[in-house]
Amino acid sequence: MKPEDMDPSIMMMYMPLMARTPLRPIAEPQEISGLVTFLCLPAASYITGQVIVVDGAYTAGGF
Fold it and tell me: Which of 1, 29, 33, 56 could form a disulfide with 23 if both were Cys (CB 3.0 to 4.6 A apart)?
């Protein structure tokens, strides 16, 4: 969804978040799907109980 397609009130909520995300704009589904695909593969079978953050370096800023 492009920002111009969003409801203006929702866009107002996301503007501060987008401003603090170093790798702007907020991720597209295809940017997250690679991780999801990998986690479904046998190669990822030993990964358990993890929180994998895909946030465009948002948490690197200490937020």
Answer: 56
Tokens coding 8: 């203006």
3-59 tens-digit pLDDT: 667 778 877 887 787 777 777 777 888 889 999 999 999 999 999 999 998 888 878
- The separation between CA 50 and the C-alpha centre of its own chain, rounded to angstroms, equals 16
Full 3-state SS string of the chain: CCHHHCCHHHHHHHHHHHHCCCCCCCCCHHHHHHHHHHHCCHHHCCCCCCCCCCCCCCHHHCC
